[in-house]
Write a structure and sequence with these properties.
With 389 residues, the chain is of the alpha/beta class. Helices cover 30% and strands 19% of the residues.
Amino acid sequence: MFYEFLTPFDKEKYLGNIVFKPNQIGNTIEFYEGEKVNLDDFDLAIISIEENRGNLENKGVEDGPVNIRRELYNLYTPDSEKPLRLIDLGNMKLGAKLKDSYFGLASVMLNLLTNNVIPIILGGTHDNTFGQFLGYQELYTLINMVIVDEKIDLDDPGQHVDASSYMMPILAHNPNYLFNYSHLGYQTYLNDPQAIGMLDALNFDCIRLGMVRKNIEEVEPVLRDADMLSIDISAVRMADAPGRAGATPNGFSGEELCQITRYAGLSDKLTSLGIYEFNPHYDNQNQTSQLIAQMVWYFIEGYYSRRGDFPINMSNFLKFTVKFEQYDHELIFWKSKVTERWWMELPYGDKKKYARHQMVPCSYADYEMACKDELPDRWMKVYNKLIES
């Protein structure tokens, strides 16, 4: 069982002197205590990682999860008609080798995903995204991944994967079960143009920081289409999140990252969240741990606000058909009557393989573009992947 990879969080040692009020998360959450739990009783699970071997320049991340827990459990539960069904599964055990830690995380992930429990992974270095990704391997379905980071981690891994190179083994993984990769918030001067060009050639989404900040609502469809979200806290500017070695002055604001995690929580498709690289030894008055706790809170609040409007029962949708004069082609849009969110319908060949990707989340701006006889970029990138497969 996956419990062999976990050790219970020592709440008496780290939380014993805190008296939680009735509606605070710390008074509502359940804690894994070393015995088998019934996962049917939970919707979400906190898992912490103290694995730091993937980024020795940020040594100290192993001490971060305790600080995040203290801040998170002091927050009040979101106002929801549904009860908070959250469990703290404790800490991942470190593997003898780094790859063993990835395998352990993947095993825990798989067990939670197959029981419809969403893992919220806290701590560790960003290369643990590889373990998060491997958790989907045995689900036998193509997935979409979103990374939020100031850098695109596409260095040559050589013999060892680390926080600057974990994306290469993901892209090269055989069998391939990555359908789409979207990178949000990269800063151009920190990245090799060849890496950006490679992602574009693969029809992946690579959206620079300024474009996201200019209109953050436009990334909601990206997150609505994601199965997993991985965040490097370095994507946040130093003024809002100093808790990382090498933190830089530019980046997202704390409010923007909270908006991104809320979008992720609202997504009916998204099934895991990881927030990495927090180092308390660089933090200022617990500023970064407070921000991460609030990011998780917004994710939970978004999760309990899900409306289940993925286009399955089309009676709850309005259909809009746009005729392209220059392409002799029709583009079909669907608008939810429940949430007023938009989707585009794509043709595909292998219905069994690509059924999850036929309906592409989009925005009203994409519909407006189509009405001007212009094919939306979102539509073109997915279409190109379908015809090239």
